User: Fold this.
Amino acid sequence: QVQLVESGGDLVQPGGSLTLSCEASGFTVSRYYMYWYRQAPGKDREFVASISSTGTSTNYADSVKGRFTISRDNAKNAVYLKMNSLKPEDTAVYYCHGAYRDFTHWGQGTQVTVSS
Assistant:
């Protein structure tokens, strides 16, 4: 079965850190451009970060630049999102997404809540 499974979401205080993981099964992520998106209540899903298939190129939304780091381990068939200096406005469901030619896959999401 082809799927992406996110984990690592949690309740964290402002200024705290979290690392999200996205593990793939049923396909190999090494050819895929991988992304993290997020969706806050009442808002559209938005781009957070992306990483090329080899990991040599990354891109970030302005709102997370300098605080979040996307990485991948193709040997483990996984992608990660390290989040530092978290703010209440980072509260959202975070989704992992993979794209390669006509193939696209989405995970079910993991909840991140930043609150004191």
About this structure: The mean pLDDT is 96.
